[in-house]
Amino acid sequence: xxxxxxxxxxxxxxxxxRYGHGYPGGQPGVNIPFNMDNPMxxxxxxxxxxxxxFGAPALVFRHQMLRDVKPA
Length: 72
Known about the structure:
The chain is mostly helical. The chain has two helices and no strands. It has helices at 2-18, 39-66. The longest helix has 28 residues, at 39-66. It starts with a helix and ends in a 6-residue tail after the last helix.
């Protein structure tokens, strides 16, 4: 019975075994979608991403709360 199950189990758990301790590389910043070579550019991108991620929804919420709604 184990010989019948061995191949399907090996196929499904193969990737888990291969990347059991994480993906290769081992250096911080290897898997991010932007370059960290220039510190000023990284800071600018970090602040822009922070504003879009947190500030824009807050501004939309504020706009919705402050707008004048008249009953139909």
